């Protein structure tokens, strides 16, 4: 009995947060460890489905770098990167789209469904969701940046209770597929939907003063300080695209942006339904 009372108590403690976020959109970017071996872990899927059942509208955006390199290796295509961007020729783009929109996207959709959610996978071409243009055809080939988000398809899905799952493949004005950084897509989608929150689930606890020391986590950081850290070379690799995406999202009117670990059990629920706050919160 005591145990049951405790459980009821825990539920009621979430009431202020459920009230605050009821009917609001929260965009979740899944990357790194959130996607164990190319898939998403079950506990994260459960958290997302729970959000939906208490009236929050989650929208999922996923990456998939490792799985793409894996299949390319099997096909004998050598991955090439310039400043963190995958150089994408036509053959590579086919693999990128197959893995992102075909394999990973459908794995995430299936897992959300098996946890009791109603998930639908989309990519840039669906409803012209992500219109993109090439960054530099000469240097990077079919790598794009977002030109415009057409959020109608997401709004229709959200309204009917579905959880949209977005693969970061854009479509150009000439209907070519373009490979886009998933962090950037998450920021643009969150901006277009006027999301209440954008949460990046990644493989580190947040932004670290020293990436090799987890105890140097920065709980709250300003864009100003991020710029300084970038200049000092303290933010590197995949974190560069992520902090730039955070800045973009805030500029586009997203209220709160967080970078948290996908490795901490129930990190999404901790972030949304408690005031203990985890990871790094980015403020303007
Ligand atoms: P994701 O798959 O979630 O997009 P990335 O690998 O692209 O993850 O980016 C996260 C990585 O960024 C971390 O694993 C870490 O190695 C690196 N990183 C570089 N600088 C920092 C920093 N200052 N704080 C935290 N992580 C950093
Ligand atoms: Mg990344």
TrEMBL record:
Site (Transition state stabilizer): 29, 242
GO biological process, one term: L-arginine biosynthetic process via ornithine
Sequence ranges assigned to domain Aspartate/glutamate/uridylate kinase in this UniProt record: 24-261
Listed GO CC annotations: cytoplasm
Subcellular location, record wording: Cytoplasm
Catalysed transformations (reactions): N-acetyl-L-glutamate + ATP = N-acetyl-L-glutamyl 5-phosphate + ADP
Enzyme Commission designation: 2.7.2.8
Binding site for substrate: 64-65, 86, 179
Protein's pathway: Amino-acid biosynthesis; L-arginine biosynthesis; N(2)-acetyl-L-ornithine from L-glutamate: step 2/4
InterPro entries: AceGlu_kinase-like_sf, AcgluKinase_fam, ArgB, Asp/Glu/Uridylate_kinase, Glu/AcGlu_kinase, NAGK-C
Coiled-coil region: none
Pfam families hit by this protein: AA_kinase
Broad class of enzyme this protein falls into: transferase
Keywords, comma-separated and alphabetical: Amino-acid biosynthesis, Arginine biosynthesis, ATP-binding, Cytoplasm, Kinase, Nucleotide-binding, Transferase
Family, per entry: Belongs to the acetylglutamate kinase family. ArgB subfamily.
HAMAP family reported in the protein's UniProt record: ArgB
Entry protein name: Acetylglutamate kinase
Organism: Aerophobetes bacterium
Lineage summary: Bacteria, Candidatus Aerophobota
Gene name in the database record: argB
């Amino acid at each position: 009995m005591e145990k049951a009372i405790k459980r009821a108590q825990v539920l009621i403690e979430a009431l202020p947060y459920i009230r605050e976020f009821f009917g609001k959109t929260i965009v979740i970017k899944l990357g790194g460890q959130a996607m164990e071996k190319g898939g998403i872990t079950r506990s994260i899927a459960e958290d997302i489905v729970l959000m939906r059942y208490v009236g929050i509208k989650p929208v999922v955006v996923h990456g998939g770098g490792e799985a793409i390199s894996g299949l390319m290796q099997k096909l004998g295509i050598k991955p090439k990167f310039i400043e963190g961007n995958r150089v994408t020729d036509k053959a590579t783009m086919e693999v990128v789209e197959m893995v992102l929109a075909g394999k990973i996207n459908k794995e995430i959709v299936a897992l959300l469904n098996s946890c009791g959610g109603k998930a639908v996978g989309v990519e840039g071409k669906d409803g012209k969701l992500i219109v993109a243009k090439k960054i530099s055809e000469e240097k990077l080939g079919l790598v794009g940046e977002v030109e415009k988000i057409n959020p109608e398809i997401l709004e229709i899905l959200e309204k009917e209770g579905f959880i949209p799952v977005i693969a970061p493949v854009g479509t150009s004005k000439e209907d070519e597929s373009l490979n886009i950084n998933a962090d950037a897509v998450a920021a643009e989608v969150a901006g277009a939907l006027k999301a209440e929150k954008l949460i990046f689930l990644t493989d580190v606890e947040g932004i670290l003063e020293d990436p090799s020391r987890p105890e140097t986590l920065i709980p709250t950081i300003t864009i100003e300080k991020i710029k300084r850290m970038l200049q000092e070379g303290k933010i590197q690799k995949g974190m560069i695209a992520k902090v730039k995406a955070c800045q973009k999202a805030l500029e586009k009117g997203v209220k709160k942006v967080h970078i948290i670990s996908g490795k901490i059990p129930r990190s999404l629920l901790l972030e949304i339904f408690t005031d203990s706050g985890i990871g790094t919160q980015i403020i303007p």
